[in-house]
Amino acid sequence: MRRSAMAAIAAVSSAGLLLSACSKADDSSDNANKGAGANAATKDVVNASTKKGGTVTYASSDAPESLDPGNMYYAYGFNFSRLYARPLMTFKPGAGEKGNELVPDLAESAGTPSDGGKTWTYKIRQGVKFEDGTVVTSKDVKYAVERSNFARDVLSSGPNYFQQLLDGGDKYKGPYKDKSEKGIASIETPDDNTIVFKLNKPFADFDFLASQPQTAPVPRAKDTGVDYTKKVVSTGSYKFEKYDEGKQIVLTRNPEWDAKTDPLRKQYPDKIVVNLKVNKATIDKDVMAGDTMIDIQGTGVDAQTQAELVNDKDKLANTDNALGGRLIYTAINTQQKPFDNVECRKAVQYAINKVAVQTAMGGPIRGDIASTVLPTDIPGYEKYDLYATKGNKGDEAKAKEHLKACGQEKGFKTAISARTDRQGEVDAATAIVGALKKVGIDAEIKQFPSGKYFSDYAGVPKFNKKQNIGLIMMQWGSDWPTGYGFLQQIVHGKAIGQSGNTNLSELNDPEINKLLDDAIGNTDEAARTAAYTQVDKKVMEQAAIVPLTYFKVLLYRSPYATNVVSSSAFSGQYDYLNIGTTKQ
């Protein structure tokens, strides 16, 4: 999920992190300097409080790809969007894996399956209103799904599950081309509070899919296409007061939000401010000083800050070091010569020194060395290493053997992409370039901004081909906590898009596709999980992904923030739904 951008980090030794129980908020200066304990927010709510008022300030090192719930795919976007957009289902705020609990949001209850899991029906809560006082209906949800999944030439940044799954999804052209208000026939709205999804096959995880922000209602009359991001019409507890593109976002309380229709949101702060394009080191400094509450991208502190934290037990007491179903990897473009030959891809697998990459990304505190596509905390994970090397430091001899097997024993040139504003990602790419050079592969690093990484650069197959980008730096978090939720959008052929693409390897293997398709329609959970293990191994046999580390985030927890909890559902980030502040 959700493309979780990598933070700027560097080599430091792992630190032992202590655990602490839940603490209560206290605005005294003494308490502000005392942490609740390292990892406290991964176990319980820290600074639990019902205090209202004040401004919660976030900061980001770049502008978001979009604020439009139907046109986003970063984990922090999914997380933050719930403040102003209510999907049918969502994740209940909870520490660690407790945060994976799926609960109704706009819907009254979980979906009702029928027809063997090919039809899913939801009842929408009555009385929910848009910020202008208009009552939300099932037609607004239907329209939201249509615009987000069937207008990929306009809104390309989100996932395309509904397009793949809805009956007739391969034929419907979307609401911007098909002007008929009937829309796609496989989403039915028999009344204003009922919505029915008819699928082309059974889909056991549909409630998880209904938690995507793409199911948050959008009024057709207010939709401005790609520009909707500038004035999203709120159904959440907050609405947009200001959107100064590339500079600042300001949310204020939505007066049409009614707690009686919403058991999750609490509307604690008066205002929420997000400052954009702030230097990463500055963000860390401001969070530690209490001037900023949250680094919104949730990717962790930078190298200098990390070194400072792990060597200061008092500061370490304000940190959370969490897993969250994330993998750092290099995608190998299977459509880019000479990587269309699996032997050349295997050469890369053996060439990379994973210890050097891990060190560049911050050492073991930022993640264990990986050998599988599935992270250790996702169902279906099974420990194995198809391309094992001594000490995980690479094997030049084996790499050269495979280069010879693919007819490239003299080596070749390629490019590797990384995000400009993610120094840790650039450092990791630099380590990979050094390892590849030793076996004769000359890789040039090409850097692009994270806000446009998928819409304009790495996520555009034609761009990669033109730029000779054969290797792509990537971090991926599960769309939802199942093997399908992690794998489908990065290895299934139908996930390949011409913009906003997340299957960066452009892998389209019939066996892998079939395993995923069959698994999700199977009512036997154990059988589904076993299939995801098979998919993992087949992807590794194709050598389409080089797993680097099972990423762990290292977050600094502001002592002035209330209701802070690190959630697995959002890749270990803090859950943004009910964060408040002791600062008034």
From TrEMBL:
<dbReference type="Pfam" id="PF00496">
    <property type="entry name" value="SBP_bac_5"/>
</dbReference>
<keyword id="KW-0732">Signal</keyword>
<dbReference type="InterPro" id="IPR030678">
    <property type="entry name" value="Peptide/Ni-bd"/>
</dbReference>
<feature type="signal peptide">
    <location>
        <begin position="1"/>
        <end position="25"/>
    </location>
</feature>
<protein>
    <submittedName>
        <fullName>ABC transporter substrate-binding protein</fullName>
    </submittedName>
</protein>
<feature type="domain" description="Solute-binding protein family 5">
    <location>
        <begin position="101"/>
        <end position="496"/>
    </location>
</feature>
<dbReference type="InterPro" id="IPR039424">
    <property type="entry name" value="SBP_5"/>
</dbReference>
<dbReference type="InterPro" id="IPR000914">
    <property type="entry name" value="SBP_5_dom"/>
</dbReference>
